[in-house]
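Protocol check, entry for the methods section draft. Step 1: assemble the input record (protein sequence plus ligand SMILES). Step 2: submit for complex structure prediction. Step 3: store the structure tokens unaltered in the notebook. Ligand used here: zinc ion. Step 1 record:
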Amino acid sequence: MNPIYHQLDFGITCIDTEHMRKDFVAAYLIEDEGRAAFVDTGCYLSVPTLLATLDAKNIKRENVDYILLTHIHLDHAGGAGELIKYLPNATVYVHEYGAAHLIDPSKLRAGVIGVYGELFFKQFLGDLIPTPEDKVVIAKDGDVITLGNRTLKFIDTPGHARHHVCIWDEKSQGLFSGDTLGVSYREFDTDQGELIFPPTTPVQFDPEVWKDTIRHLMSFKPKYAYLTHFNRIEFTSQSADMLIQHIDGFVEIAKTLENQNNRHKAIKQKLLAYLLEIATKHGVILDETQQIKLFKGDLEICAQGLGVWLDRN
Ligand SMILES: [Zn+2]
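Step 3, stored output:
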């Protein structure tokens, strides 16, 4: 198997897990002084790609010290239970609210099948297997771990999900941000920079908490965000403003359509119109069919998450 990966600097590799489509879901590999760590794993089906990346880079499996999970949504952590089988010296770091679901994923599995259906689960996520309890370590806010010659610090980052941490990499002045600093596809890059929008995924989306988290992350003065969706971007205060603006934009759409018949469909349509409009303003020149194709993966999930949020309030 030939893995697809993007070699960044500071010993960081962005691995394309090839989930659903190319350049959609990343996992990261950090190397330092002969030791290595994965940040997120992709889903169960991504594990062969992660192992092939180690092989391609001549990294021994024994030299992987950590699997660091930003949160337990399956495109980020679904592969943890499978991957740990191959990494004899690694431990899995996860937010305290995610740990129980790694050790016994039965509820998580049922929840995901409830949302996506059994067919999608099997075909695109593969499986979800337990992570042995003695391999799981709780990542608390402020905890620092050492990898070779560098330190990595966990930051509690609720808003996208309550079980979300970001990881501050002092060496590159970058944040491994999972979904907390938004999603941004390279196809939408223009001379105005990156187009960033919020994945308002079910079931814990909380806009006010999320915006506070973004402001807190900016106090680290990051140079980069290592996004799961997709790849590293420079992350400036304008990036943060854009993300916050679109969290508000998405929430506004949900509120406006709260009492609409067929609410989910209506939210989805309006979200798509919103995304196409911000892409146009951003100077994106891809044709609309192509844009819709790229937005499609997030649209359904974002609309569902907004619906769950409306019902909760
Ligand atoms: Zn997520």
